[in-house]
Amino acid sequence: MTSAPTYDRPLHVAVILGSLRRRSRSRAIARVVADMLPPGFETEVVEIGGLPLYDADYDDPAVEDKPLPEQYQRFRWALAGANGVLFVTPENNHTVPACLKNAVDVGSKPNGESVWLDLPAGIVSHSVGRMGGYSAHKNLRLALSYFDMPMTGQPEAFLGSTGSFLDEEGNLPRPDTQRFLATWTQSFADLVRLRTPRRR
């Protein structure tokens, strides 16, 4: 019998939310997914609301009067220590929220040092409408594909009508939604395990 894989430490998943609201549905959904991850995983929300808009001058040594913001450094360090990244996002005007696109840009620089390269990723999009943030999901997937990030395939997680399936405490009372998210979360966990070196 083949023994289960072992790791030097818990597998760390960075969570990035596309909504900055304190009580956002994105945050509630991320909590649900985090609770569904199997033993041996830990999650941490990496906040993106304080990231200044990306400016290439910050990463240019020749521009001495615009030092690299500390927020950029903290964000990049947080992602550099992750085994995987979970994106949970609503859709704004048929695309990703500006704060999330800015975070992708900040993490992608400086050239040759992107924190996204080869980092396993999972995307959960949502909306109050029936499409479940489809356009935001596809736009984010397109942006991340540039960095050769391994991503979950089927099932894809588009959560529609979030105003009806999340209760006031941010829980999922509907068994069908619970089962779907549990299946998706297992797929994401399997991807992170697959791409994380095992302890010898």
Q: Describe it for me?
A:
This protein is of the alpha/beta class and 200 residues long. It is 35% helix and 14% strand. It has one domain (11-194): Flavodoxin domain (Rossmann fold), CATH 3.40.50. The protein is built from six helices and five strands, in the order E-H-E-H-E-H-E-H-E-H-H. Helix 4 links the parallel strand 4 and strand 5 (157-159). The longest helix has 20 residues, at 175-194. The radius of gyration is 17 Å and the shape is globular. The mean pLDDT is 89.
Put the structure in a nutshell.
With about 200 residues, the protein is of the alpha/beta class.
Strands, helices and their partners?
Layout: E1 11-17, H1 25-36, E2 41-45, H2 70-80, E3 84-89, H3 98-108, E4 121-126, H4 134-145, E5 157-159, H5 162-165, H6 175-194
Parallel strand pairs: 1-2, 1-3, 3-4, 4-5
Question: Which geometry do the CA atoms define?
Answer: globular
What series of H and E elements makes up the topology?
EHEHEHEHEHH
| Terminal Cα span | 17 Å
What share of residues are in beta strands? Answer: 5-15%
Q: Please, what is the CATH homologous superfamily?
A: Flavodoxin domain
Largest sheet: 5 strands, parallel
Helix content class = 25-40%
> Any guess at the CATH architecture?
3-Layer(aba) Sandwich
Task: Specify the number of helices.
Answer: 6
Number of domains: 1
Keywords for this entry:
Rossmann fold, 6 helices, 14% strand, alpha/beta, single chain
